[in-house]
């Protein structure tokens, strides 16, 4: 597999030597399904093996065993080593899950709405329902908007765990979504020492990443891919 300069190779964060984990930079043209296929091709995956969830900021997490689109889904897992999970993000957290030695892995799109409504808890439930131990999983939270830049107002602040809220002088609030996610993952049963959080802020790093909060509807998207050799 060859990773070009338009992609970040995250595979070394996983103990399973067969896992391939990819995150595209802003420089990669990520246009819909074709963008995902192009990235898959460039990184050595079979473009026809992609799982493509139609993301809706839901808490829906599914196990899927055949390629193609999956409607109204923000978390996609598989036990088929020939398939490749995919998501797209532009500030939201891309959360990668991989079993330490078995072909069971998944990708979750976790925006603030999905986070407060329990998408990571649903991810843990999906794994346990398929008779896998959470302690056997490595988890990675990829580049996403950090507490330096993620602000909300009074209208939604009550939805957040107060432990991860910092009130600013202008009356707005900063939220540490990554620490909130870590807390939920550990509470669910994942082991903290097997959880990696990348601290690159998509809002701050304008040259590297797209950001919806920075550019609004004009923002592009980054693609996450997760599969096996």
Task: Give an account of the 3D structure.
By secondary structure, this protein is α/β, with parallel strands linked by helices. It has one domain: CNF1/YfiH-like putative cysteine hydrolases, CATH 3.60.140.10. The chain is 19% helix and 28% strand. A hairpin with a 5-residue loop joins strand 12 and strand 13.
CATH level 3 topology: CNF1/YfiH-like putative cysteine hydrolases
CATH class category name: Alpha Beta
Give, in spatial order, the strands making up the sheet with the most strands: 1-2-15-7-3-5
Average pLDDT number: 96
Q: What is the percentage of strand-forming residues?
A: 25-35%
N to C succession of SSEs: EEHEEEEEEEHHEEEEHEHE
Between the first and last Cα atoms, what is the distance in angstroms?
Answer: 9 Å
Compute the CA-based radius of gyration: 17 Å
Alpha-beta content class? alpha/beta
Shape: globular
